[in-house]
Amino acid sequence: MVWKREHACACPARNRDVLRADNVTFSYHRGGAPVVADWSAEFPVGSTTALTGPSGRGKSTLLYLLGLMLRPDSGEISIDGTPASALRDAARAHLRAQKFGFVFQDAALDTTRTVMDNILETALYRGERRNGVAVRGAELLTRLGVDVPEDRKPGQISGGQAQRIALCRALVSEPRILLADEPTGNLDAATSAVVVDALTDHAASGAVVVIVTHSPAVAGACDRRIDL
């Protein structure tokens, strides 16, 4: 584990952790070799953390464990100091909706919905009003340089645009925890910088941001780095 510079607003970790992993082990098949073994980390508010390392080291799996989409074989994921791994599926889904934003490696947009409907989907599920959140969605599209009509479908846009729309969807509800899997993978250097700025600004607002990346530039922009 290699730690980068500490964020200026970092406080004692145990008092400020929103997200925490303790001795987490996970394998995809019972009795199989673990993809993640006895792994622990703390993620204080106001921080961006890069998860780096060669392919096959379990970076994406760790992200899904931190996001309560996978349940560890042993160990615990805690949110705001409360163990969350053993919660029932419905309770974990509620936590994800209320506290998390996700950017998946393949964007994971609904091809039957418009760009704006994709951005608003999670926020509306959380009970936010469409008018207010649509304004934020439009502002994010402009900030991230996505110059496409809001009623266009995902099949009518580029991969790089889809990835930025996925980031808009993750940011629009201003989540306390944002998990991003290779968010700059389909982007050129200039657009990647815009995306990284949006992620670090979100962390600075008092959130936790965890980024899986192979990019040295993205990792270098984060407050700290964990090599797997």
UniProtKB/TrEMBL annotation:
Pfam families from the UniProt entry: ABC_tran
MF annotations from Gene Ontology: ATP binding; ATP hydrolysis activity; transmembrane transporter activity
A GO-annotated cellular component: plasma membrane
SUPFAM superfamilies: P-loop containing nucleoside triphosphate hydrolases
Keywords: ATP-binding, Nucleotide-binding
Domain ABC transporter: 19-228
Domain of life: Bacteria
Matching PANTHER family: ABC TRANSPORTER RELATED, IMPORT ATP-BINDING PROTEIN
Descriptive protein name: ATP-binding cassette domain-containing protein
Organism: Microbacterium rhizomatis
